[in-house]
Structures are given as C-alpha cells and as structure tokens.
Amino acid sequence: MVPQFNQSNSSEEKIRYLNAIQTIDTSRHSLQHKQRIEQRSPNLIEERKTQRKRETMSWQTYVDEHLMCDIDGQHLTAAAILGQDGSVWAQSAAFPQFKPDEIAAIVKDFDEPGSLAPTGLFLGGTKYMVIQGEPGAVIRGKKGAGGVCVKKTNQALVLGVYEEPMTPGQCNMVVERLGDYLYEQGL
C-alpha cells in the first residue's frame, strides 16, 4: 500500500512515499518493457534458453570425451562439431582443414538428399564415396579402409572420421548417438 502524501507528513514519511512511488514506477516500466520485447520476438525466451545452453556447455568436451572416446579399444581418427554455417564449435587436433564449400555441399545434401552421390563427399580435400545414410539426418562416406559419418542436429553438424581397425558401425554409433542427444536438447 502506498502511503498518502501531504505537506504535513514527516521527512521519513515523505521518503517512504517517494520510495514506494519509485518502486511502483520501476515495476510498471519493467513489465511494459518485458511485454514490448515479447511482442517483438515471441521466440526470444526460447532463443535465450538455447543460447544459455550453448554458453554453459564445453563443445570441446563433447569432442574429446564423447566423439574421441574408446570403443572396444578403437577410436575415431578425427572428429568435430560444426555450426551448419561451417563455423567450428570444437574439433580434435587431427580434424582435416576443410573448405567452406565442402561444408556447404554437405548441408545441401541434407536439404536435397542425393546431391552428393554423383560427386562424392569432400572433407579436407579427401573424396569419400557416399554410401547409404538417412536422408536429411545422416550422411555416410567411405574411402578405402576408412570413412566419415555426418549427423545433422537442429543447429550443428557432428562429424567423425575413422580408419580401420575401427568399423563403420562403431563410427556411426559414436557420431549418431551424440547427434541424437544434441538434437533432443534442441541444439
């Protein structure tokens, strides 16, 4: 309740009155500001939550501990998590230096499944023959005794490169499991 103000009020009462008015004005201003922001961007709250998740996670930890992990004594040769725009979120030390057009071609194949089949999948200048994947979700490539697996999430690409004795199935399991987890988290 706001105290009443008149000239006969004591100094303490005047100060309480001014503080109460200021609190009410600040609260009203904050509410109006919040409403204006929500009207301008209804998805702002979700965008902020996603941004906070991305900021609090260590992408390098995902690469080091989840992609480069030991599976039956084997591990990927190289791994990375990239934004769909080709920005590097995290990568292993041995991940090949790729060209932006290579990532653009991979993203295009997710949007237009089969577009990589005639030319192959290129990563760091190495050409992989595209083999069966999951249209719009997973692209797999093979070259000699090794290969690559790329899993698309809502915002990222999870990539794993392997060589024998690791098997294609082991690579796919590691990459796709992390990709599925990130997808479920909205990332």
* DSSP strand tally: 7
Strand order of the largest sheet: 2-1-7-6-5-4-3
Note the main sheet: 7 strands, antiparallel
What percent of the residues sit in helical stretches (DSSP H or I)? 40-55%
- The end-to-end distance, rounded to whole angstroms, is 46 Å
**What portion of the residues fall into strands of 2 or more residues?**
15-25%
GO molecular function, one term: actin monomer binding
Protein name: Profilin
Subcellular location: Cytoplasm, Cytoskeleton
Family: Belongs to the profilin family.
What does this structure look like?
The chain contains five helices and seven strands, in the order αααββαβββββα. The mean pLDDT is 84. With 187 residues, it is an alpha+beta fold. The chain has helices at residues 11-40, 44-56, 59-67, 100-111, 168-184; strands at 78-83, 88-91, 121-123, 126-134, 138-143, 146-152, 156-163. A seven-stranded antiparallel β-sheet has the order 2-1-7-6-5-4-3. It starts with 10 loop residues before the first helix and ends with a helix.
